[in-house]
């Protein structure tokens, strides 16, 4: 995304879709560092690379379960 960073896109989308769950993939930062720096909101998930399709599906399933709970 040449002109828009992931957190900015998520913020814009959440204005239209409150409660939107977001998974960030392929970052060189740790999740705690991104949260502390205010780059990630607490209801997001950071999936560090390398990851597998199985891991992505597990994360999506966990997010869906937390939404229904």
Primary descriptors:
mainly alpha, single chain, 3 helices, 69 residues, 12% strand
Characterise this structure.
The chain has 69 residues and is mainly alpha-helical. The chain has one domain (6-68). 48% of the residues lie in helices and 12% in strands. It has three helices and two strands. The protein has a two-stranded parallel ribbon with strand order 1-2. The chain is globular, with a radius of gyration of 12 Å. The termini are far apart. The model has no long low-confidence stretch (mean pLDDT 77).
Q: Helix count?
A: 3
Estimate the mean pLDDT confidence. 77
Indicate how many domains the architecture comprises.
Answer: 1
Structural shape: globular
Q: Give the beta-strand count.
A: 2
Order of helices and strands: HEHEH
Rounded radius of gyration (Å): 12 Å
- What distance separates the N and C termini? 33 Å
Assess the beta-strand content as a share of residues. 5-15%
Based on secondary structure, the structural category is: mainly alpha
Largest beta-sheet characterization: 2 strands, parallel
Poorly predicted runs are none
Side-by-side strand order of the widest sheet? 1-2
What oligomeric state best describes the polypeptide chains here?
single chain
Helix content, binned percent: 40-55%
């Amino acid at each position: 995304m040449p002109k828009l960073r992931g957190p900015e896109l998520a913020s814009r989308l959440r204005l239209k879709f409150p409660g939107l769950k977001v998974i960030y993939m392929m970052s060189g930062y740790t999740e705690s560092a991104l949260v502390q720096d205010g780059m990630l909101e607490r209801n997001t998930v950071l999936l560090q690379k390398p990851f597998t399709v199985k891991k992505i599906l597990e994360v999506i399933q966990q997010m869906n379960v937390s939404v229904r709970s």
